[in-house]
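JOB MANIFEST
job_type = single_chain_structure
chain_count = 1
residues = 361
[input]
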Amino acid sequence: MKYSNESRKQFSKDIQIQKEKLQKEIENIALNYTDSPKKLAELAAFRSKFHNYSFRNAVLIYAQNPNASFVGSYAKFKELGKEIAVENNEYDEKGNIPYFGVKAGQRGMKIFVPAEITYICVDKVNNEWIRMSEATAQQKSAAKIGTLETKTELTFRLGTVFDISQTAIPSKYYPQVYFMGYNSEQHAQIYEGLKAYIENELNCPVTVGIDNSIALRGFCYTGSGVGIALNKRLEDTQKLSTLSHELGHFLMHRGNQNAKPSAQCEIEADIYNIMLESHFGIETNDIRKAHLAGSYRQYLKAISETKSKENGDKSVFDNLETIFSNAGRAFDESIQKIDSYANMYVPKMIAETSEEYEIEA
């Protein structure tokens, strides 16, 4: 079906309106978190499930379905559903592969999807460019042989994703698709795995020797010399949580202490900690939430009083996006190795089944 230029222009206009509406929704959600900083912990925990997505898309998914756990496109779930059916010998009475894709009538979630758009210069004198998709056959041919100049720009189009709960995949197969966390009895083993990762992969010694304070749970040397120290009174889950927080400092702030406000460093380490805890299936405690909220309020106060070159012209949302992006990047770059070390220390049965969890949305 061919569309007129007017129809294409109206379609582009409608898409742009939808984009602007979603962008406004993202910013409103971010400001809501600013009004209630403790809710940042909820967003950080949710973000860990979608660390392959941008902060903006994670916020969009949360706004449309805060209970989402594993998302993918219609085509992705159609393919994944077929793979699961075959792998588990699921066939109907006629021997056909059942449909495990997105169920009929399900409403998807809108996200931003990166896309490259190619333009053709049709009038060099007036610097007039048109999209390749809107060019005539003659113009496309001229562009192909180099007679007309072309350029490619990155833009974002609207895409649709669905949660696994919107598919026909039986819930008993969910653990084959995404990691659903460890139980509390395994926190000691996970701590040992995380400690081994830090010492072996990062060459950062971890000691448990702080004995002169009850309040000080741990600290990380990020200046000259490296090392992480933990309070010897911490229990298994507390040790794992504190070590995760200090690891966040080590990954993001070592040798870079003066480049960011201290409150921002604490927020980033807290968000990294919460993402890692959520990945392990550990519920964030009230102490960590309160620390995150307090640090965030200090950070907002600091940037409102100091118009630095880095933060002066940024909105609250921009600053929040920067912080989450920093923590998310550290999480992305470390989680695969951390999982491999954790699996060395968790009982063998758990380690074997964990290998199936590395399927991306």
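[summary]
The chain has eleven helices and seven strands.
The radius of gyration is 24 Å.
exit_status = 0
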